[in-house]
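Bench notes, afternoon.
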Amino acid sequence: MNAPPPSSTPPASEPLDPRDRPARLTVGVVGAGRVGPALAASLQLAGHRPIAVSGVSDASRRRAAVLLPDVPLVAPAEVLARAELVLLTVPDDALPGLVEGLAETGAVRPGQLLVHTSGRYGTTVLDPARRAGALPLALHPAMTFTGTSVDVQRLAGCSFGVTAPAELRLAAEALVIEMGGEPEWIEEEARPLYHAALAIGANHLVTLVAQSMELLRAAGVSSPDRMLGPLLGAALDNALRSGDAALTGPVARGDAGTVAAHVAELRKHAPGTVAGYLAMARTTADRALAHGLLKPELAEDLLGVLAEGDNR
């Protein structure tokens, strides 16, 4: 019996490299900041083909070269001319002007998928492009980005705030899933509130942790990061599991004397942190009181200390 001819199809144990699969969409990136190249690289892993990227700064060009090697750097209008799916990954305040400019100059093509990654905006900001025939999507990854290849890995399981016209909802959710993310539908009018919630949780967290590390160094701690890591990890896990029930510390206990000592020390060694400490302590006290963690008879003295701290 003659042996069967060798097959050109790789065995099941050797999956095709995404670059060998037929690309479904050509992808362009306008704004090679920390987000755009990572999302394009994730789409490339799903079989799409990054074809053009725009970037102005040297840092943007370096990011594009690392995450999207061999993808040419061109002007924004040329990105739109080449790509079927365009990622607009520019700062929030720059997005409306960019969209208007692209629409006014005729760069937008009918049937082109135009995706922005701003948390603040839904799809209304893309109206000038929609009137030119573009298909508008708002896909905001709820993650902080480093601008390195680690971001592509972190997208696995990352939630995306998704807003799109009803007829494009399935397409928007499919793109998120292809990037390894989890789509979470956000109504157009809820986008600013959604974004504010994320900023409170993530951006303010970085500020608080950085302040804490500075104060620990001033107190003589040689490795503030090593000291804070387990504490903050446990606090975050407890907060995500239990919400306000996870509150601990002198404010939640109503230890007015301890809080007064904190304020005095901060005023002496780090006066720039006092306002933030007082604001967060007052918010923590309000939440602890509302949830029955802070006894009303202790809250009065505590709030008095915080008011006195404001008046100095």
